[in-house]
Amino acid sequence: MRVLLLFFCTIVFAQVNAQNGFAVVELFTSQGCSSCPPADRVLSQLLDDADKKGTKVYGLSFHVDYWNYIGWKDPYSSAVYSQRQRNYAKSIDAHRVYTPQMVVNGSTEFVGSNKTEANRNVEKALTTKAAYAIEIRDWKVEGSQGSFQYQLDKAPHGERLNIAVVERDIENYVSKGENRGKTLSHDNVVRVFESITLKQNGKLKVDLSEVNPEKSSLILYIQDDNLKVLGATSVPVGKS
Fold first, then answer.
1. How much is the pTM?
2. Does the N-terminal or the C-terminal CB of the chain have fewer CB atoms within 10 Å?
3. Handedness of CA 124, 53, 227, 130 (dihedral sign)
4. Sequence-ordered list of residues with C-beta below 8 angstroms from that of 209, at least 6 positions apart, any chain
5. What is d(CA 12, CA 38) in angstroms, rounded to the nearest whole number?
6. Could you name the CATH architecture of 2-236?
7. d(CA 111, CA 141)
8. Beta strands at 77-78 and 57-64: parallel, antiparallel or unpaired
9. Average pLDDT, stretch 204-225?
10. DSSP E strands: which ranges in 56-133?
11. Quick one: pLDDT at residue 240?
């Protein structure tokens, strides 16, 4: 009986942790990379699964710019995102940058098209409680600008707050490069990104001029000096 009771308690504990836990999944990808479309699909599947299960999985698709030289300039790429990936290579000791690469909660990296590894790392992340609870308040959209307030449950200690606007259901035709002749689909493409010093509360604005509000979300997540993610939250951009 005690064995059965222990087994039952373990299941309940895991379920409670999954409810409290979170996973920030950052995919470094490119429309100029022939190996990337499978990883884009893995990210979409992770988000679909999280939506069905009600788990807190925050996906961000960062399009790097270092594949642009081979003939196709990824319209969603940025040198800022490439540098972000290089920063992870140093902090995680990955020794190199590559696409497609996934990073979960800023501490684990693997080939982004590996669905088994993606599921395993996300499930593991969901058992870890956030160090900070962060809340978005008074989200408003006025014209091409969004404004909001955020509030932490306790005072921070020099961490960074990342503010991202991601857009889902993006599709476009690629006429050059390794994916020439293909129509590629993406979810949670990062369209706006900024990193600032974290405070316990604050009022911020974001530019929405290049996104479809009805297909976009605002994601906030906190990182320490080692880029470990300590908390995250999100709100639909179209919700005002």
1. 0.92
2. N
3. negative
4. 144, 145
5. 34
6. Sandwich (2.60)
7. 37
8. parallel
9. 97
10. 57-64, 77-78, 101-104, 108-111
11. 58
